[in-house]
Amino acid sequence: MASRYSQTGTQVQTQTQTLSPQQLLVRQLTELPIEALYERVDQELSENVALERDSNEADGFGDEAGAADGYDSGAEDDSGYDSAADYSSPDDVPDNISGGYRHDSPDTVVGETLSFYDQLEEQIGFFHLSEHEEEVLRYIIGSLDDDGLLRVSLQQMQDELEVYHNISTSQTELERLLEVLQHFEPAGVGARSLQECLLLQVKNAADRQSPVKQRLLLLLTKQFDNLILNRWDRIAHNMKLSDAEVARLQHEVRRLNPRPGSSMGEALGRNLQQITPDFIVDTDPYGHQTMSLNNGRIPPLRVSPDDLAFLNSFQGLDVKTLSRSQREGITYLRERVDKAQGFIDAIKQRQETLTLTMQAIMRMQQPFFESGDETVLRPMTLEDVAQQTGLHLSTISRVSNSKWVQTPFGIYPLRWFFTSAAKLDGDEVSIRSIKAALKELVADEDKRHPLTDDALALALQQRGFDVARRTVAKYRTVMGIPIARMRKNDK
């Protein structure tokens, strides 16, 4: 139980929960996508002498698959941001920060073509927001530059919303919703400066509590101007760093992305990064859906039998009869063994959590996994999946935020399956269904006489979607569809 003071000066009692190191490790591993997990396993193998590859196991670590039909698989900173961080264009970002970031070559067609702004809007369904809050958040997303940074002041957005869109808001609400946006993927989106962008990426990292990430936070908050000017000698002196620590920090800085919007490309399907799916969903010869975790490159792990045998040899002995060096050696080795076993257990728990989550998503979105038709996707939130699995809401968020699933119809980010709801004849339907119908109407219209928003609303109503003209205009804008007169073609 901890005490804090509210804004009114009243003392308030709050209850906080302290997580154990094992719980923190499970959280970190659960959040990692498969490629990052490969790196983490390699790092753990190199650092812990008691952890080793299990040569007796032929397959990958804990590979699991199951029939999806029966789903029985068996298995937060107040730092100042006005400094040398503000650049007028992405090209002004110093090479010592941007030089290490690159796009991998296109490899996989991922789902459908979605713009950067579409991908951000898809993530709105991760949060329980009112219709008004969603509308304001969509406007903030639409105000982002192509690099994912926000260079419009909150005051300007407040004025534009009230004058041009008749939406009343406040800077306090805009600040709160911007903070929501800054939890979206990719990390760093919605930042108002380069410094804030880099800080968000470190704070949202799965290993943010690690010593190197804490040192990186200190670098970005206290030594940012020196970093921009590439004064690593001053940084090393001020932070009392060794040459090896400087080299590690330089490596970590180069891994940060000063342009998070560009990492998603102008549109998925056009400017793609290499994608490694975390889940593989397929249909067996009997028509049953199957799901497996992609653990191909993760080796089977075990605690060193030699180390276990050595520790067992001292069982029952009086420690007083041992020399000091023997006691210290046993203590050190026992710590390594416990850490190795904890790491193995954490990976197993990660697999169980991912499997439960994916099975629940497949149950709730079964029509899509049978047909590949996105219009049959049902409204689904993080809370819905949490209730289905019995897992905590934050756990579902970690699983969904950075994972991909390979289906017979393409590869999709897991967050793509979460979608907000709209009312249709008293029932909830996915907003994506409405957007798909809107897209189809625009594609099939007579370009010499394109449909106005009123006509589109009427056409959607005839299809059973009870939407107003204002709603059509909102979805059309978000989807990047111009107004009727801009779509007109007299030829």
Word description of this protein:
The protein is α+β, with helices and mostly antiparallel strands and 491 residues long. Helix content is 46%, strand content 9%. Strand 8 and strand 9 form a beta hairpin. The longest helix has 41 residues, at 324-364. The relative contact order is 0.14.
What is the spatial order of strands in the main beta sheet?
4-6-5-8-9
Low-confidence stretches: 4-9, 62-91, 99-113, 265-273
Q: What would you call the structural class?
A: alpha+beta
Overall outline: globular
Residues in β-strands, percent: 5-15%
Number of strands: 11
Furnish the topology, listing elements before pairings:
Blueprint: E1 2-5, E2 11-14, H1 21-31, H2 34-47, E3 51-53, E4 65-67, H3 95-98, H4 116-122, H5 131-142, H6 154-164, H7 171-181, H8 194-203, H9 211-222, H10 224-228, H11 232-239, H12 243-255, E5 279-283, E6 289-293, E7 301-303, H13 305-312, H14 324-364, H15 366-371, H16 382-389, H17 393-401, E8 404-407, E9 410-413, E10 421-424, E11 427-430, H18 431-444, H19 453-462, H20 469-478, H21 484-487
Parallel strand pairs: 5-8
Antiparallel strand pairs: 1-2, 3-7, 4-6, 5-6, 8-9, 10-11
Descriptive tags:
491 residues, globular, five-stranded mixed beta sheet, alpha+beta, single chain
Outline of the structure:
The protein has 491 residues and is α+β, with helices and mostly antiparallel strands.
